């Protein structure tokens, strides 16, 4: 499991687990650090995909199904063990939903809460009609990555470092762009969903998430653009809300 899941603070007595999926091109360390901030009742599992960190030599996944199947294979026993919640930003939000939909359909398991950030619902026209980025030339792609922010400038300015980082980002974007989900006739989930987004980011169809679940869907807009969640104040706000909602859900579960 350690190959796929980064967990800095093992908490066998935790009441719930927060499973975090990376943004496009991202690793597992950013979310794994959240374990140091969240209280002892929450254990953090941060997903590490192939092609980065300790899996740098492994080939990238080609589709969403490969990601979902691998993660389920390594943590299915833990999913059955205690309540779990999901968090994902942008590409990670898509992965959260694909994961939740699959474990619900196949194993009759469901998160107690989903926290989604910076992403339209998977079936929404806003997402399906967005320009594809994975097909840009290397130079055009570098300009776009610089524009959206979130990547240290020293990486983008160094040709060798950029050559290591950009392929993972392109591979994940290709997976996201090819992921298709039809608007459900009935919601596929029943858990509550909390959507975060940056006020200065490109608009996302957050309301469309209401078609995916019978649970409450709420939206919290925070200052910043695409990587608003990396700002210290925003990150604290997000973690405080995650803690509050999971503590409430834990009491209901007990």
From TrEMBL:
Superkingdom field: Eukaryota
Domain named Thioesterase: residues: 17-244
Species of the source: Sinocyclocheilus anshuiensis
EC number: 3.1.2.14
Gene3D superfamilies: alpha/beta hydrolase (3.40.50.1820)
Membership in a protein family: Belongs to the thioesterase family.
Phylogenetic lineage: Eukaryota, Metazoa, Chordata, Craniata, Vertebrata
Name by which UniProt lists this protein: S-acyl fatty acid synthase thioesterase, medium chain
Key words of the record: Fatty acid biosynthesis, Fatty acid metabolism, Hydrolase, Lipid biosynthesis, Lipid metabolism
């Amino acid at each position: 499991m350690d190959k796929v899941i980064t967990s800095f603070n093992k908490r066998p007595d935790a009441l719930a687990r927060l499973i975090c999926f990376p943004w496009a091109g991202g690793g597992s360390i950013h979310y794994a650090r959240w374990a140091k901030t969240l209280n002892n009742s929450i254990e953090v599992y941060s997903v590490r995909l192939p092609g980065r960190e300790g899996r740098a030599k492994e080939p990238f996944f080609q589709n969403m199904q490969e990601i979902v199947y691998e993660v389920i294979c390594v943590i299915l026993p833990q999913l059955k063990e205690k309540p779990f919640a999901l968090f994902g930003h942008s590409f990670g939000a898509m992965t959260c939903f694909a994961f939740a939909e699959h474990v619900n359909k196949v194993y009759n398991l469901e998160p107690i809460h989903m926290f989604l950030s910076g992403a339209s619902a998977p079936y929404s026209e806003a997402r399906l009609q967005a320009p594809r980025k994975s097909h840009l030339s290397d130079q055009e792609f570098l300009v776009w990555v610089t524009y959206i922010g979130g990547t240290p400038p020293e990486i983008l300015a160094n040709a060798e470092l950029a050559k290591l980082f950009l392929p993972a980002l392109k591979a994940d974007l290709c997976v996201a762009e090819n992921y298709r989900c039809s608007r459900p006739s009935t919601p596929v989930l029943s858990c509550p969903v909390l959507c975060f987004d940056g006020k200065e980011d490109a608009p996302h169809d957050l309301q469309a998430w209401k078609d995916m679940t019978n649970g409450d869907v709420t939206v919290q807009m925070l200052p910043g653009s695409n990587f608003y969640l990396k700002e210290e104040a925003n990150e604290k706000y997000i973690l405080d809300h995650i803690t509050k909602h999971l503590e409430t859900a834990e009491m209901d579960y007990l």
